[in-house]
Amino acid sequence: MIPNSIVNAKHEKKRVFVGHQQDDCPEKFSLFYVRPIERGYVVNWDTQQQIWEKTFDHLDIEPTTSRIALTDNNYLVPALPDVSSEILFEYFRFQEIHKATALGFVAEHAARIRKRSCVCVVDSGFSWTTVASFVDGILIQESVIRIDVGGKALTNKLKDWISYRQLNVSEETHVINECKENVLLCEEGSFEMSIKSTLPQRSTASSVLRCSTWCTS
Predict the structure, then answer these.
(1) Which tens digits make up the pLDDT trace of 52-72?
(2) What is the model's pTM?
(3) CA 95 to CA 108: how far, in whole Å?
(4) Contacts of range 43-49, beta carbons closer than 8 Å, 24 or more positions apart
C-alpha cells in the first residue's frame, strides 16, 4: 500500500518524501503531511498528480499501454472541480479509465458474484465515512449517509489519551497511526477481488472513460 501524501520531516529539510518514498525516511517522528484529499474529495490536484507520477514510475507502469481503475467521489459533488480525466488522459496518456466509487465496486461485486440483491455498504476512509444501500447493484440515492469521521478521528483520540496520561505525542501522527494499524484486523483481498470482478473487458477504442457505461473521450 502506497500512502497518498507528501511528507516533510524536520530532520530532512532538503528533501520531501512523496508517496512510497516515505519508507526511505530514516526517522518517523515530527512529520508534516500534505494530503491532496480532504474528507474524501480531491482538493489539490497538483499534489495528487505529483504522487501519481512518482507511484507510476516506482511501479514501472507505462500508462500509454495500460488502463486504470479509479475510485473517486469527486464527480458526485458538482461544486468540486474534477480534472482526473484530463490528467490521466492528456498528461499520463492512459488508454482507458474506469471511474467509480469504492461503494459501487463492492455493491456490484455483491450483486454479480455473491448474488445478493440488497446490500448496505460502509466505506470508512481517513477523514470520512459513507454508508449507502444498493439494490441489484444500483445505488438508492436517498439512503446515502455521510459523516466527517474516519480513521483520522481515532488516531487523534489516541494521541489525546496518550498525551494526557503518559507523554506528549500531539505531533507524532505517524507513530500513533502505526500503533493503531498494528492492532487492527481486516479481511485481506476482498476489495481487490471486488474491483477485478466488476471491471469490464478491454475496449478496442483508443481512449475510453467508463463511469456507469463506456463512452469515447
Answers:
(1) 999 999 999 999 999 998 887
(2) 0.74
(3) 24
(4) 43/80, 45/81, 45/83, 45/84, 45/87, 47/6, 48/4, 48/87, 49/87, 49/91
